[in-house]
Amino acid sequence: MPYPDLPPSPLSDAARRPAELMPFDRFGPEEYELAPEEIEREGDSNRENGLRARLRAFAVRVLVRVAWLGLAVLLALGSAGIVAATGQPPQGDNRPELTYGADQVLSNRLDAAIHDLNTLNNDVVVLGQMARDVLSNLSQVNEAGLDAAYTDGDKAVSEIDAGAAKLSSEFQCATSWTSAREADLARTYSRTMIDRWHQVCVAIDSVAPLKDNWAAMENGARVAMQVADDINNHDSTGAQALQLATQGRYPEALAMLAQASASLADAQRIATNLATVGDVSTLTEWLQRSKGMDDALALLWQTMIDSNGRVTAQVTAALKAVNDAQALLPDNSDILQVVLYEMAGDLTSDGIAIETAKGQLASALADLTGGSVLGQ
Length: 376
What we know:
Blueprint: H1 29-32, H2 36-87, H3 96-139, H4 143-170, H5 179-185, H6 191-206, H7 210-246, H8 250-274, H9 281-306, H10 313-327, H11 334-343, H12 345-369
């Protein structure tokens, strides 16, 4: 704070000296002038910096334009892809990038189905063997063998039917395989997978007739065996009747002969039904001749009863009728095998159908696996 009674303080150094005392002459223009070589260096530096700046600016403009051009190309390609994708559905292997995931899932399902079809094929092989066993045992009139074949065949058919129904439902094989269905599947799966799917359905469909074929074969064999049983019962009972007649026990012989004739009548009834669907002419002829023999014996024995055992003209005529009827019968029982073979005609057809189905399944599996089928 200044005091009015005191004079102002003098300057203590040069910075506070009066202007006229300052050495301004030492700070004239000549103090700031650059040497000629420094001026030249500075000009070169400025030109170099300017050139670099222009180059950088040009490079930046080029890069920006390239970046925009690349972005435009990507957008154009992306738009073209979207248009192509929405314009038409993927067609099989032409667009594997769109079906790959679904194909993998379906492929695993089809592999499992092929494994199940191999199991199914084993059951079909068993059924084919049972069909052959039926024909073999029928020709030998082996009822025990037939019963065993029926049991094993029924089990095989049951497993085939259940397995095929499960696979058919899983892969919708009951639905008609049309071009429209294939076009619909092509939206999700590749052509290769669709073809494999179709092959699986073909394999499943090949076993569809087996249930009916086996049922027809088993029923036919049972009918044939019923006829054979009737004939055997007739022959056995008729032999007992003859034994009684030779002992003069004509009333008992007639009663026994009536039982034999009942068995023969049952066989004739079956033959009549069979004749509407097939040729059983040998069986029909044999049954008629056997009935003629029974009628002749019944007349003879009744005549013997009426004559009290005496040989009369009526007895002689009846005996001649018996001899004539006997002459028409075969000398041995081989006729039974002939009759059964004739009756097995339709059974053979059923057996062939079973073998055909077995072959179709094996072929379909070979196409799916590219090799041999298990169980063959």
